[in-house]
Each structure stands twice: as structure tokens, then as C-alpha cells.
Amino acid sequence: MTKMMKAIGFKEHLPIEKENSLVEFKMPKPIAKGHDLLVKVAAVSVNPVDTGVRKSGHSTLKIPKVIGWDAVGTVVSVGEEASLFGKGDPVFYAGSFKRSGSNSECQLVDERIVGHAPTKLTIAQAAAMPLTSLTAWEALFEQLEIDPAKQKSNRNKTILIINGSGGVGSIATQLAHWAGLKVIASASRSETIKWVIDHGADQVVNHRKDLVEEVRNLGYHYVDYILELNDLDGHWNEMAELIKPSGRIASITENRRPINLHKLTQKRAKFAWEWMYTKSFYQTSDMISQHNILDQISKLLDQGIIKSTLNKILFPINVSNLKKAHKLVESNHMVGKVVINYSGI
Ligand SMILES: NC(=O)c1ccc[n+]([C@@H]2O[C@H](COP(=O)([O-])OP(=O)(O)OC[C@H]3O[C@@H](n4cnc5c(N)ncnc54)[C@H](OP(=O)(O)O)[C@@H]3O)[C@@H](O)[C@H]2O)c1
């Protein structure tokens, strides 16, 4: 007989205040095959992708869609081709855009995008990390092509991180600092200014003011790298003005209107996108790099070189707490990360 498990999802794309915006239901417990691990979920975190997918669409679905990407849990069983993990291993991961999410008792995930969970952090501290760490790592070290091993020469280079206090910015500032760069992070309130300094920013600018003036007031005419983490349209002209000739810009947010690449022509500056899901979405040959990145993040966390960006814990995992977390993320003023777990640790 098929075993059933609890899950939380939605059939209608409703505002979070509506009763059915998220609902609990039962679904068959999946079975691990191939490269998959079946993981018993212990804690999840909510990202803007959760609220975006929940809200966007008009049709009513036949069966509820389970979302949730970040998760920490324990491996319950493994598929016949899995070799990186065994039953009982504590793991953390950000999952795939295409598959059923982490807001369920158990979840299937391809082991090539899973890392060993850090051993010195609480479950909640670890659950805050996977999606944002993968995004920040790939943006900095793959798309901006910064070499973290060259800490000495990186000291002469400056990066501007727009949105230093959100989930991605809070880990990106730490990783850029670890790579040796001078980090200018943007924050607009006293709480977020303090937060970005605590998380590795050397200097702070205000993204509610003119960023060109803000950066120039600090004594920099241009910066070597820019990492854009909120409102590409709103910050495009400032970035084109501030980037150094031959500098590099990466963005993780989508433009709503055409961006004028012409503005980078004379500077021959490079522009790159980062999408954390690309590797699993297209099953790229380097997909296993996400396993390696998460294992490195795990080590850096256990060594205390970087710290968890957890800022709020809710428990237990239920509809009410998941709705609270969605509401916080939708505010666009989230500082660090919100996590929901089965216990309070
Ligand atoms: N491409 C990918 O793979 C990927 C991965 C993760 C996230 N994302 C996207 O990247 C964005 C950031 O994600 P996140 O998780 O870091 O978000 P988040 O945690 O929700 O970011 C919240 C922060 O944004 C800041 N902010 C608000 N308006 C801003 C503006 N106009 N300019 C600069 N900062 C602003 C706020 O600071 P103040 O309150 O101080 O203003 C707040 O602290 C989202 O759009 C998300 O969908 C993409």
C-alpha cells in the first residue's frame, strides 16, 4: 500500500492573507531512484522565489503544488545510482525549480545538488544557507569570475553589492570579504546598515539615494565589480556609470523593461546573469558543482570563516507559520533569512 505524508501547497495563486493561499494536504511518499535521495525534512527557509511562484498564475491547479526550496534534513533512502550520501546522513540543499518542493515531510532531491550539512550549526542556522549561498558563490566566483584563491591581488579590487542586507547579500558580502575584496554594500536603514557591517561590508552606501554620488563620496570613481541583488531596472544607469572600464557586472534579478547594454560599449564592461537553478534545470554536465559548493560552504561555516545569515525562526512547520514567513519575505525588507523548523532550534 502507498504510504502517505503531509505536505503544504496551493491550488490557487492567492494573496497570502487569503485562507487557501497555502493549505495542508496528504500526498504519496515518493521513492528514491537513480541519483535521488529521499530526505526527511527538518527545517526549511523561505525565499522570494517561494512567494513569486505562489503568486504568479491565474489557473486553478488540479492537485496542489508543493513549493519550498531551502531544506535541511536526513537521508532516509537512496536511489541505485547515488554514491555521495548514505542513509542517515544530515544534508542541506536548495532543490530544483522543476520538482516538488521542501514544504513536505519528505522530499526527493538529486544528490548532485546536495551538500553535507554543517556539523557545528543548529538545524535552523543551516537551513538559512543553501539557496542564497549557491547564488552568491556562482555569481561571484563563476559569473563575475573572481578567483577566491587570489586573496592578495583581490585586495586591490572593489565590489559594490546592491542589497547587502537581504538573504543573498548577507552571504555575498561575507564571501566577497573572504575572497579578499574591498566590499561596499548597500543598505538603507540603521538596522540594515549595522547588519551589513556585521556581515563583512567595509563600507556602506544607501540604495534609496543616488548610488553614483554615494560611491563617489566614499572616494571611488569606479568599482571593479558590481553584484546587483534587487531592482535591475532601477539601478542599471547607476551601475553603467560606476563600473570600471573592463569591469564586470552580474545580476540575479530580472529586468521588467529592456536594459540598455549600449551603455557598457565604450567601457567594454561585461554583464552576466546568475540563476541558481540553471544547472539542475538544464541538467548541465557541471551540475555536481553545486554539491561541491555546498560542501565548501559547510566547511567555511564549521570553521567560523562565514556565519549563518539566520535572523528569525518560526516553529513548528505548519500553514500558519509558513504564511508568516511568506509575508515577511514579501515585505521586501527582509534582513538575512527566516527559517521554519519542527523544533525551536
Ligand atoms: N537569480 C537567482 O538565482 C536568485 C536567487 C535568489 C534570489 N533571487 C532574487 O534576488 C532578489 C533578492 O533576493 P533576496 O533573497 O536577497 O531578497 P530579500 O532578502 O527579500 O531582500 C530584502 C532586502 O532588499 C533590500 N531592498 C529593497 N529594495 C531595494 C532596492 N530598490 N535596492 C536595493 N535593495 C533593496 C531591503 O533593504 P532595505 O530594507 O534597507 O531597503 C531588504 O533588506 C529577489 O528579487 C529574488 O527573487 C534570484
TrEMBL record:
- Matching InterPro entries: ADH-like_C, ADH-like_N, ADH_Zn_typ-1, ER, GroES-like_sf, NAD(P)-bd_dom_sf, Zinc-ADH_QOR/CCCR
According to the lineage, what is the superkingdom?
A: Bacteria
Specify the protein name: Zinc-type alcohol dehydrogenase-like protein
Q: Where is the Enoyl reductase (ER) domain?
A: 21-340
What's a single GO MF annotation on this record?
zinc ion binding
> Per the UniProt entry, what species is this protein from, by scientific name?
Liquorilactobacillus oeni DSM 19972
Cited NCBIfam families: adh_fam_1
Q: Which Pfam families match?
A: ADH_N (PF08240), ADH_zinc_N (PF00107)
